[in-house]
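Field notebook, page 313. I keep forgetting to write these up properly, so this time I am using the form the group agreed on. The chain and the ligand, zinc ion, are recorded exactly as supplied. Prediction of the bound pose follows.
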Amino acid sequence: MQRLLACHQHQPLAYQLQIGTVKITIIAESVGPLLRWQELYPDATEQSMASSNTSAHRNLYDAHSGRLVIAIQAFLIESDGIRLLVDTCVGDCKQRARPEFNHAGFGWLDRLHAAGVSVHDVDFVLATHLHVDHVGCNTYFEDGRWRPTFPGARYLFVKEELDFWTSDSAKSPLERTGDYIGDSIFPIFEAGQADIIEHGHVINSSIRLIPLPGHTPGHVGVCIESEGRRAVISGDLFHTLLQCENPDWSTRFCVDPQQSRQSRRAFFEEHADTETTIIPAHFPYPCAGSIHRNGGSGYEFRFLSPEKVSNIF
Ligand SMILES: [Zn+2]
């Protein structure tokens, strides 16, 4: 088994922000140097990396290993008595293609409990998309089979996304080794806890989904609006600051790189220089921030100041 990802730079692993009356708790599973930029971005060059602001940030790029710092984390949204868990990380004890994920022991569920949340407290579980690092803690292994981790939850699946990943066209060897659909998605259906939803699904008066297709066909963001404030959990629309500086860079993991580019540009254009708090799936602490035009063809992401975030541990 490969060495587990180290927690990076002693950053907080569980912390909260408030959007009007809605509370968002971010609970990290792992934070650390994970992907080489060449592995993630086919359009990146040595020159573009050298001139990027990202390379200068120790919290975002590990120059020693040449790897980008990636946080893998879940977002618990509490609103009007509803608890919605968005993205459930990689999970433990699962057979995976990537050595860092294979038969891992991250202990994310212990961290959830330490943050004061029981698995019985979660009402809804949603993945922004069905990639391996967003669905792992959907299930856990007990008595010889995979069972839903959250016994009282309805698990919401966006129809386009589910159709894509359960069709034959999705069976790329890279993605399917270890069959994460088989151990993290199908058991939810077998347990009768799955609901199939549209990409514009409304959870309640403060929370709705917005389609952000391209990275995957049914990729969605989660829009939170309360008391005149707005935040968007933007999933894997962009993985690092490099894609703010270079909005046309899609990743090697994007199913449709062109559509991903269009969704990202339209999203940045809509929210640039506004009060919207953007919460990308893989940004390390404090994760959230705002997007601003940088005077050229790109954008600048400004992280929230630490006093706007409440650290739990
Ligand atoms: Zn991801």
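OBSERVATIONS:
- Residues 57 and 63 are 9 Å apart (CA to CA).
- Residues 1-6 have pLDDT under 50 and may be disordered.
FOLLOW-UP: compare against the apo run.
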